[in-house]
Automatic annotation (TrEMBL):
The keyword 4Fe-4S does not apply. Residues 64-414 form the Solute-binding protein family domain. This is Peptide/nickel transport system substrate-binding protein. Keywords: Signal. It is found in: Periplasm. InterPro entries: Peptide/Ni-bd (IPR030678), SBP_5 (IPR039424), SBP_5_dom (IPR000914). It comes from the Bacteria. The lineage of its organism: Bacteria, Pseudomonadati, Pseudomonadota, Alphaproteobacteria, Rhodospirillales. Its main location: periplasm.
Amino acid sequence: MTTFLIAAALASPVAAQEAGGRLDIVVQPEPPGLMLGLVQNGPTQLVAGDIYESLLRYDSDLTPMPSLAKSWEISDDGLTYTFKLNEGVKWHDGEDFTADDVVFSADVFLRETHARLRASLAYVKSITAPDPMTVVFKLKEPFGPFINAFENGTMPIVPKHIYEGTDFANNPANATPIGTGPFKFKEWVKGSHIHLVKNEDYYVDGLPYLDEVFYRVIPDAAARAVAFETGEVDVLPGGSVENWDIPRLAEMDGVCVTEKGWEFLAPLAWMWLNNREGPTANEKFRQAVMYAMDREFMRDVVWNGFGKVATGPIASSTNFYSDDVTIYDHNPDKAKELLAEMGYDGEPVRILPLPYGETWQRWAEAVRQNLSEVGINAEIDSSDVAGWNEKTSQWDYDMAFTYLYQYGDPALGVSRNYTADRIKKGSPWNNVEGYENLALDEKWAAAATMVTPEEREAAYAEIQKEIVDDVPVAWMQELTFPTIYRCNVNDLVTTAIGINDGPRNAWIKK
C-alpha cells in the first residue's frame, strides 16, 4: 500500500524570546468544569486547552501541525491513519504517556462522553497501538475531514491510568485535571480565578516560557474593560467586552488587537427561520428577509466593522467554501416583490435575540427596523439564557439569533445544522429550523466520504449553491471576536484556535 507522509519538526525556541512572567486572562462566564473530555463549552476550552492536548494542532490555514504526534501518514485509500507519537511525554502526575492513552481516550472515554466527536468516530473501524509510540486509526470508509478531528477540544487525550474502569463523570480527578499540556492545574477559587503553573517537564524544549497563567472571573462586561484599563488583566479574549468598548481600549498606549485565532472554530451567526409554520415556512418570505436586511450596515455599526457578511452556510475560512451562490444584497424593492408574490398579509413574526449582551439586542433591533421598512410585522421577543435555550430547543420561535462553530470542515460543523436526521427537539445546536431536503441530505453524506479534496470541493460548491436559494436560515455574519492584549505579550495567537492553546508559545517582553 502506498502512503504519503505528513510531518513537521517541533519549533525550536528563538533566542530573543524571554522566559518567565505571569499572564492574566479574562474568562467569562466561569467554566462549569475543566475536564475537557467531559465539558467542551467555550470557557472550558479556553482554560483546559493549556492542560490537555491532542495529537495535532492547526495553523491559520487549517494545516495540521505536530502536538502529541510528531508525524503521521494517511494511506492512499483514505482508510488508515498512522500516528507516531513524541517520546518522553509525561502526564502531570509523572506517569509516562503512551499510545495506550490515545486508544483509551478515543475508543473508550470519548466515545461515551463527547457527542460531537462520536459522530466522526462512527466512521472508525478500529483504533490500535502496535507499539507504545504508534497509534493506527482504521476507517470503515473514507471520511475526508477526519484529519481535522485531532484538535484539542475535539479529541482531548486523557490519562488511562486515572480513568480506566471508573465512573468518568464522577471521577475525583475531574476537580484537579491532569493532562500532558504546557501548564499544570494549581488552584481554582470559584468566582475569582483559576491558577495554572508551568509544566517543568514539558516535552518541547524551552516551552512554555511563562511561569504561570491566571484566568480571572469578572462577571460584568464593563468591569472587565476597567480591569484591562487599570492593568489588572493582560488579555481580553474575544467577546469579553461589548463591541463599542473595543475601539477605546484598542487606542490605549501599549495595546494590541488581533482578529486571528478563530479560523478553526469559524463562528458563523444566523437567524433560525422556523421552516415548519407561519410566514417563515414560505421560501419566498425567507428570501425576502435576506433582501430586506442591510447586513453591511449591521457589520459596520453593530459590530464596529469586525467580521464579514456571510454568503451561505460555510464560512470563508472553512475548507471548501464557495461564493458561487446567489448574493442577497440589500434590496428592499426585491423583498417587497417577493412578499407580494407570496401574499404576505402582515402576520406578525417574533425575533428572539441571543442573550449574550447588548450587542445582540442592538442587532435584533436593526433587523426589526429593516423588516418593518419592507412591510414585515416583526416584534422582539427577548429572553434570558435559560429562556433562549428552552424556546429554541422546543421550536417556540419564528426567527432566532444564534452562532455555531464550524470546526474546519463542513462535515464536522456545518451539515449538522441542515440534515433531516438532526431534527430533534431538546437541543439548540442541531437542525433547529426544521429544514428538510432529502436529496440534499444525500449530497451532504456523499461529500463527507469522498476521498480527494477536488471531489469534495466540487460537491460542496453544488450544495452551497442549492441551499442558499432555499434559505433555511438567514445567514448574517462570519463573526470576528477581536482579542485585546498588552503589546509586550508576544506569540499569544499562533494557531487556528487562538488563545485556547496560546499560552503554550506566549512570552512577555520585559
